[in-house]
Every structure is written in structure tokens, then in C-alpha cells.
UniProtKB/TrEMBL annotation:
Species name: Archangium gephyra
Gene designation: dapB
Binding residue positions for NADP(+): R35
Alphabetized PROSITE patterns for the sequence: DAPB (PS01298)
Residue ranges occupied by any Dihydrodipicolinate reductase N-terminal domain in the UniProt entry: 2-115
Protein name, as recorded: 4-hydroxy-tetrahydrodipicolinate reductase
Gene Ontology BP annotations: diaminopimelate biosynthetic process; lysine biosynthetic process via diaminopimelate
Length: 260
């Protein structure tokens, strides 16, 4: 059994992960963290607020962390100090905070993935392949929609899609456009638009549009609950436990060639 700690266990993903770890045959809950410590008892979970303290008694092999970029940076440092592997699903990283996780991943294995759903990762791969095949004759746009409580925008998945599309088309960060307003003029050929919708209880939707002359291709993934994110995270936890230190992503877990 793989001894697993879940951070942010009172969150939306934390609750999904708690149920899935309990249902799994090969992972066991070794502890959990939350800032709402009084809720741990009713969840039947042992743990506390500080991951370092939880790890000092939990004999954990892996931490699954869906919290926030800021919290994940601190959690990665605490795991690195104790030699515990990690799966990080948090989004909202800046180049600097990602570099901090990469620094921790010099001493422990870390899977850092803005989307742990296998289906989404297949879509990411197909999006790059479609862009390569279609080439320059199509205008590429990414649209994402999420629930009203989501804190970061665009979603980590939309940013990942934009990154792999840019790489497939030989374009760079400067070609990404996150908003349009006013007299913007004709669309530059090189542009890749990334647009955000927020509202209601939308779990997560991503579409890549390829607008051509006289046709349009749309590649869409819609999550209708959080289970596939959680199941993918458990798969990543099994894969990362006992690996060599390094920063990995879901492409590594799934045995795909990296797309960017
Ligand atoms: N990779 C993937 O496939 C997916 C990634 N995500 C990402 O996972 C993250 C969590 O999403 P979700 O579960 O919906 O969010 P929630 O807000 O429901 O849960 C976040 C949890 O993390 C805790 N947390 C947040 N910030 C901190 C902090 N600074 N220190 C300690 N604990 C903290 C919260 O604690 P408290 O309750 O005390 O506020 C809460 O328990 C987001 O970044 C989201 O984008 C989400 C779904 C899928
Ligand atoms: O916050 C969410 O809910 C989600 N976040 C991830 C992201 O930012 O890409 C993945 C998923 O779509 C749900």
C-alpha cells in the first residue's frame, strides 16, 4: 500500500481525492492537511494545518497536492526536506513559483500537471498534432469555462494548450493574446487567443478552435465531475512513488512524448 497524504482535504479536489484514495486498493491515507482543522474529525482523518508536522509522523511516501500555487511551493519545500514524492495539481503558477517547485524537484520526484485527467491529456496531444497538420492556414483560439469559485485565469490547462499549440506552430509567448477590447484591428496571423468564461458550477471545459476558410474544427473536452482529475492524480501518485528526483508531467506518467 502506498502511504499517501492529501493536502487541502476540505477543498473540492481534496474531497474527491479523499473518497478515491479510500476506494483504491493500493493507496492508503497516511494523513491530510487543511486550514479548517476542526473539520478533520468529521471526515475521519488524522492530520493538521502544517504539512511538515503531518509528514513528521505520517511515514508518507507521496503527497497529492491540489491547493494553490503559493501553498504548493511551500509544500514542495517541506516534501523535499523529508524525501517525500509529490503530485501537484494546483494551477496559477508564475515562472518564478514554477522555478521554486523545480528547485525542490532536484531532490524529490514531482509530477506537476495543470490537468491530471487522462482524457484532457489526450486532447492536449491531439491539439498539438492537429495544429502541426493544419499548419498556417488556420487561426487557432483556446476557450475555457469554469465555475464561479475558480481563482486563477486563464486555467492552467488553457495555458498548457496555448504552450503546446505555440510550440507546434513555431510561435512564442508574445503571440498569445488573453483579451480583446476596442479597436483591435485585423487579427494578426500569428496570434493564438486564449479566452476565459466563469460561471455557475462548470467543472471544466476546454475547446481549441481551428478557424479556416470555409470550415472550422473544434476540439472540446468537458468534465462533468471531478473524478477523472482525481483518478489521474492517483495514477500519477503510483507512478511517481520511488522514482528518481526530477520535475515530471502527465505526459511522462502516460508514456506520451512531450509536446512542448
Ligand atoms: N490538475 C487538475 O487536474 C486540477 C487542478 N485543479 C486546481 O487545484 C487547485 C484546487 O482546486 P479546488 O479543489 O477546486 O479548490 P478549493 O478552493 O475547493 O480547495 C483548495 C484547498 O486548498 C487549500 N488552500 C488553498 N490555499 C492554501 C494556502 N495558501 N495554504 C494552505 N491551504 C491552502 C484550501 O484550504 P481552505 O479550505 O482552508 O481555504 C482548500 O482546502 C486549484 O489550483 C485548481 O485550479 C482543480 C481541479 C483539477
Ligand atoms: O479550478 C478548477 O476547477 C480546475 N482547474 C484546472 C485548470 O486550471 O486547468 C483543471 C480543471 O479544468 C479544473
Amino acid at each position: 500500500m502506498i502511504r499517501t497524504v492529501i493536502t487541502g482535504v476540505t477543498g473540492r479536489m481534496g474531497g474527491t481525492l479523499l473518497r478515491l484514495v479510500r476506494e483504491s486498493k493500493d493507496l492508503e491515507l497516511a494523513g491530510a492537511t487543511t486550514r479548517q482543522v476542526s473539520r478533520l474529525e468529521s471526515l475521519g482523518v488524522s492530520g493538521g494545518e502544517d504539512l511538515g508536522r503531518v509528514l513528521d509522523t505520517a511515514r508518507a511516501q507521496v503527497v497529492i497536492d491540489f491547493t494553490s500555487a503559493e501553498a504548493s511551493v511551500a509544500h514542495a519545500r517541506q516534501c523535499a526536506e523529508r524525501g517525500v514524492a509529490m503530485v501537484i495539481g494546483s494551477t496559477g503558477f508564475t515562472a518564478e513559483s514554477r522555478a521554486e517547485v523545480a528547485a525542490s524537484a532536484k531532490s524529490i520526484p514531482v509530477v506537476l500537471a495543470p490537468n491530471t485527467s487522462v482524457g484532457v491529456n489526450v486532447v492536449i496531444r491531439m491539439a498539438a498534432e492537429l495544429a502541426r497538420v493544419l499548419g498556417e492556414g488556420y487561426d487557432v483560439e483556446v476557450l475555457e469555462a469554469h465555475h464561479r469559485m475558480k481563482k486563477d485565469a486563464p486555467s492552467g490547462t488553457a495555458l498548457k494548450l496555448a504552450e503546446v499549440l505555440a510550440s507546434a506552430l513555431g510561435r512564442g509567448q508574445d503571440d498569445l493574446t488573453y483579451a480583446r477590447h476596442g479597436q483591435i484591428g485585423a487579427r494578426p496571423k500569428q496570434e493564438i487567443g486564449v479566452q476565459t468564461l466563469r460561471g455557475g458550477d462548470v467543472v471544466g471545459e476546454h475547446t481549441v478552435y481551428y478557424f479556416g476558410e470555409g470550415e472550422r474544427i473544434e476540439l472540446t473536452h468537458r468534465a462533468t465531475n471531478r473524478d477523472q482529475f482525481g483518478l489521474g492524480a492517483l495514477r500519477a501518485a503510483r507512478w511517481v512513488t520511488g522514482r528518481s528526483p526530477g520535475l515530471y508531467d502527465m505526459a511522462d506518467v502516460l508514456g506520451f512524448q512531450r509536446t512542448s
